[in-house]
Structures are given as structure tokens and as C-alpha cells.
Amino acid sequence: MRILITNDDGINAPGLQVLTRIAQDIAGPTGEVWTVAPAFEQSGVGHCISYTHPTMIAELAPRRFAAEGSPADCVIAGLYDVMHDARPDLVLSGVNRGNNAAENTLYSGTIGGAMEAALQGIPAIALSQYFGPDNRDLADPFDAAIQHGADVVRRLMARDLWDEADYRLFYNVNFPPVAGADVKGMRAAAQGFRRGTHFSAEAQTSPSGRRFLWVRGGTQDVPTDPGTDAAVNLDGYISVTPMRADLTDRAMLPLLQEALA
């Protein structure tokens, strides 16, 4: 198996080292793991692509490349440059430092990398590690992802839970904010919504008198509806959410058509 991995925390991120171990486990001794990751942190860029300027790419080691672009750029670079002779069988994106559950999903570069792979017709999984008081001070806060990441990927691959629709299915996996030994299991979960919390901006003035805005994230320990992603994560379970890039609200179409008639 040939696997392409990327992330949004950057080529030197600890989570990418974790993902490399997961991918090597899945690929096996006869497989190949290729890395194309952002040269610098690209958190929060979503599905952004560098459409108006070129992306510099550099080979750091065999099968290991850094690109000055977003995770989606890195996937495109992997498919059409680095691995152009033989496309990967699977794309893995992560392991993100922090959760990509609920509304975080919409901003996530980790999700953007997996989404681009799906749009290119390749099976893809985004993986993220929730952080909280029960794991952030561990020797390795990615412990849950380390212990259970390969198993989650294997289950999704073994059950052939994929399709070839125009907007192809991909998966969003979030590991709970606990030690690996304390993970209770896996749950299929819809994307949730954290009520009463949201991204915001905080103004600061520099020593030179210029005004800057810092974007602040919302509170992450707010549970979503029962059975949805952040809720099951905070209860100690790995959430697995099937996703597509199609944003159409199909249930609304008949009512909209009637209103527009």
C-alpha cells in the first residue's frame, strides 16, 4: 500500500511523527509512506489552495517533502508532482494538535487536506487529538492516537466503507482527551455544535501604536448534543464522522423551489 500523509501543524509537528508511525503500521514492510506537509504551520486555513501564487516545494529526505502552502496544496503537490507516477491508495491528514470536532471542522486545515484527497477520488481520513486536563500533561499527549490510530484506520479500510460518488466520502476521526488506556471505544458520530461558544477577535496595540487583532478560539470543553462528535470525545470515546464536501441542504430544496416558483 502507498500512503500519502500531510497535516496543518507543519512538517516538524509532533502529531505528524505520530501519523508517520500509524501510516507505517498500515502500509507494512512492503508498503510506502510519502510525506508532503506544510513548511510552516497552516492551522485554520480550511480547504484553502494557493491559486494565485506558486508553491515552493523541497525534498528534505527520501519520500519526505515540505511545501510552502496549505494542506490542500500539499495533497495536490503529492498527487501531481511527488507521486505523479503512481498515486497513493490512501491519504491521511493529521494527527492534529487539538480537536477538529463540531464547528472546528469548518476551519480546519487538517480536514481541508482530507477533503482535497476525496475530491481527487482517493480514500482519505483526517485524524485529530483532543486536548484536555486528562492528557495535556502526559509524557505524550497524543497517547490515545498512538495506541488506537492504526486500529481505526484498519477498521475503515477493512470494511470498505467508501464510495465513488462525485463528492466522495471521507472520514473525520477525533481521539478523546484521555490516555490511550482510558479510551472506552469508538463511536460513529455526527458533527456537533458547541452552543454558547465561538471564535472571536481581541484587539491589542503594539509598542509602535499600531492596532492588531488576534483571533481567539471558543471554549473546547463544551459538549455537543448527545451522540455527536465532541460529546462522545469528552465521554472518552473516539468519534468517527463520515463527511462529504457537498454543502447542499437537500431537505430545503423543495421548500426553496416552492418559494421561488
UniProtKB/TrEMBL annotation:
Cofactor(s) the record lists: a divalent metal cation
EC number: 3.1.3.5
Coiled coil start-end: none
Keywords of this entry: Cytoplasm, Hydrolase, Metal-binding, Nucleotide-binding
GO CC terms, sorted: cytoplasm
GO molecular function, one term: nucleotide binding
Class of the enzyme per the UniProt entry, highest EC level: hydrolase
Binding residue positions for a divalent metal cation: D8, D9, S43, N96
Main location class: cytoplasm
Compartmental location: Cytoplasm
Matches recorded under InterPro entries: SurE (IPR030048), SurE-like_Pase/nucleotidase (IPR002828), SurE-like_sf (IPR036523)
Record text on cofactor binding: Binds 1 divalent metal cation per subunit.
Pfam family, one: SurE
Gene3D superfamilies registered for this protein in UniProt: Survival protein SurE-like phosphatase/nucleotidase
Catalytic activities: a ribonucleoside 5'-phosphate + H2O = a ribonucleoside + phosphate
Residue ranges of every copy of the Survival protein SurE-like phosphatase/nucleotidase domain listed in the record: 3-195
Tagged with keyword Nucleotide-binding: yes
Function: Nucleotidase that shows phosphatase activity on nucleoside 5'-monophosphates.
HAMAP family noted in UniProt: SurE (MF_00060)
Family the UniProt entry places it in: Belongs to the SurE nucleotidase family.
Protein name: 5'-nucleotidase SurE
Species name: Yoonia vestfoldensis SKA53
Gene: surE
